[in-house]
Amino acid sequence: MKVTVINMKRCSQNIVEMEKLLLIWLEDQNQQRVPARLSVIQEKARELHTAVVKRNGEGSASEEFSASRGWFNRFKARANLHNVKLQGEAASADSVAAESFPRGLAEIIREGGYTADQLFNVDKTRLFW
Q: Does pTM top 0.85 for this prediction?
């Protein structure tokens, strides 16, 4: 993953420093083949921003940073990150529903008397009319 930080003239110095550190962290995660999740990247950005503000002193402590999805999209553009893929469809799936789904599906299969030949995955299938 080759990254280049560009067009950061509108960002505060703390955010510039934080994003440089975040790029290093992302590169490390990429080399370790750790999948990127938006929530983890956002949390790391907030953590790094807090550390940079603390290191730079009191004058910068009033700066707000939320690590929003919009910030992330702008960060990707500024850093020229084209190959950052978030884990999962939108990295925002309903984990409670996903956890209970296998039991519910097993119940439907059992009640319907379906066989293995009647089951298939349509996750990447499209229907054209």
A: no
